[in-house]
Amino acid sequence: MDVAELSQLLDRIRGVRVLCVGDLVLDQFVYGDTRRVSREAPVPVLDEKRRELILGAAGNVVRNVGALGARPILVSVVGDDPEGQAVSRLVNAEPDTEADLLTVHGRSTPVKTRYVSNGQQLLCIDRDPPGVIGVQDIAALAGMIAAAAKEADVAILSDYGRGVITPEICRGAVAACAGVGIRLAVDPRGRDYSRYDGAFLIKPNALELAEESGLPTETDAEVEAALNKVMDGLKQTEVLIVTRSAKGISVLERGKPVRHLRSRPRAVYDVSGAGDTTIAMLALALGAGAGIEAAMQAADRAAGLVVGKVGTATVRPDELVEAERAQAPHDPSGKIQLLAAARERVARWRAHGLRVGFTNGCFDILHPGHVSLLRQARAMCDRLIVGVNDDASVKRLKGDGRPVNDLGARARVLASLEAVDCVVGFSEDTPVKLIEALTPEVYVKGADYTVETLRPLGGDAVLAYGGDIRLVPLEEGHSTSGIIARLSET
Question: Which fold has domain 332-489?
């Protein structure tokens, strides 16, 4: 997966609605320094500097979904205690998050307290409620899940073994998702995965796979045997994915051989919440229409970043794109940007006194007319941004059978041109929103347009802030439609 493919996937993820069901945990981090040993016992003394409260378990899945630009819909349980109130406040503070929390009286809210010194955990203390939620609470929660599933594009079941994800809740979630035709991805806990059967995807880690299968999971061959054994016990689940830390990710799709994806070498500071990041990205990629291979690659990239942070951290789209670009600094696809990153790049250019230009189009089959337009546009500015219609908008504008090349391919070809400094995809029929966000000093189009016809296409915005509209001559005899017509005649 290169920068262009990752950028395109992250663009599609934006706005995906994700039902998140699972145990909520209040994660408490106590940060400090250790410079001495206790006089009472041979243990280090932590000089506390600060405390931080964060949503954990299914709450961290919600945080990851939101950080990646999607819209979480959380359904879970809290206790009627101060910790439950703290969890509710944290949930309410998450932007673009819908939540339906069931308060269970007499039940304590799970708490995980980690003590951290110089970026390393010293100790972790869990406080968990005894037993599972009651029959009435199970029925109420199942109804909440069924209602929320109707509003979602994809779903995640995050089982942390804190008593919320009972077999009845599993069956209810599977049925609710099947009833509305959305895929369910499960992050499992404990033995007997039959309770998750019917979910589209189940994602254990290597230790969890070993526990479920009763087989070792160190080598590729051992993992393949374990995956096949677990799949044999499931009747409806389509995909098993196992995360293997530095050894990467392995996947078994029903009816296919096991495939292995190797992870890049990465610095690991804290694995807390890495599984949450992985399941969030897997589900989001599937919800955005990606295949299993692309979803695995994106999840591996995201997990590789989050383990380099301390605590139950999240990753943002711009971080993922920048990290991917750093792996191939001479790859022209590094010019391909999400809008937020493009705005930052424009700000840096302007800080150096550079004049920013903009043009846009479908650029379906690149031809000499396109190259001429881009060269002339680049001559009118110091840095040229090219806006490219995504596949859906090209089809709306040009009709069935278009585009010939998808957005990723078109963006990569444009990025390889010396005249182009940045490529940004957009989903609307016109580049108005893109122009308003990037505010280029000059807007360049071919002379088949006029200033008046460009005004509703972004020209009004450019003129309003004092920019220029420039029209450049076209090379006769070159058009994508003409090329396609000539090909159809041969």
Answer: Rossmann fold (3.40.50)
* Same CATH fold assignment for domains 3-327 and 332-489: no
The alpha helices in 181-215, defined as continuous H runs, are 206-213
For the beta sheet containing 24-37, the strands, ordered from the edge strand earlier in sequence to the opposite edge, are: 44-57, 24-37, 111-117, 120-127
- The domain 3-327 having CATH identifier 3.40.1190.20: the answer here is yes
Q: What is the pLDDT of residues 402-424, one digit of tens each?
A: 898 999 899 999 999 989 999 99
Using CA atoms, how far apart are residues 150 and 169, in angstroms rounded to an integer? 17
CA distances from 217 to 238, 243, 247, 263 (A): 21, 11, 11, 17
- Of 262, 269, 288, whose CA–CA distance to 390 is shortest? 288
> With contact defined as beta carbons under 8 Å apart, do 129 and 104 qualify?
no
Please report, for the chain, the start and end positions of each structural domain, with discontinuous segments joined by +: 3-327, 332-489
Exposed / middle / buried, residue 288 (Cβ in 10 Å: 0-12, 13-18, 19+): buried
- Catalytic center residues: 276
> In the prediction, which pLDDT does 324 show?
78
**Digit-coded pLDDT (tens) for 116-146:** 897 788 999 999 998 899 999 999 999 999 9
Task: Tell me the longest C-alpha to C-alpha distance in the chain.
Answer: 90
- Classify 35 as helix, strand or coil: strand
Distances 7 to 262, 286, 341, 452 between C-alpha atoms, Å: 21, 15, 10, 33
